[in-house]
Amino acid sequence: MTLTAGESTQSVGPHEPAVWRMLQRAQVRITRSLEADLLVEHDLALASYDVLSHLAEAPERRLRMNDLAERVLLSRSGLTRLIDRLQRDGLVEREACTSDARGLFAVLTDAGAARLAEAGSTYLRGVRAQFLDLLDADELRQCAAMLTKLLSASAVDAVPAVDPAPAVAPARASVLGSALASGSGVAATSGAASVSG
Q: What's the confidence (pLDDT) of residue 195?
C-alpha cells in the first residue's frame, strides 16, 4: 500500500502495508510458478488454462464472450485476442448466438478439453505445492473465510478487467480460489473459492 506525498498515514498502522505487500507477493509468486510450469510442460499460458477451465465447467462447454470475460477478469479486447490464439490452436471455436446476432459464444473443442485434461495435473500439482500443502485444514478454512469477507466488501463485479500480460497472466486471486475448490476439503462459496467467477 503505497502512500503518495501529502497523503494521510493516520489510518494505516505500522504493519498494515507490510501485510498488503505480503499478500501481493504471495499471489504473484504462486501465479508465476503456475504459469512457468504450464508453459514448460504444456505450452499453455495460465490465462489460457483459465479460459479452457471455465468453458469446460459451463453447460455444453460454451459461454458468451462477455460472460467469459467477466469470469476470467479480462477486458473484452484482451479476451478476444486470447480466444484468437486458442482458436488458431484448435482449442476453442466461436459460434454465433441464435438469439442475438451480435453475440458470440466461445466453445471448448475436443482438442481443448484434451489439452486441459493434460495440463490439469500440472496445475493442481503446482497449486498443492505452492499453496495447499503449506496450510493445514484450519488455515485453509480461515483463508476461505477471509477471502469471502474481502470479496463481499469489495464489489467484485466492479473490479476492472485487465489485458493478460505476456509472461504472467492473469495475476489475480483465482489461483487461491481454484486451489480451495480443488481437493482441499474446504467448502467453497461461489464468490470466494472461485474468485474468478
A: 33
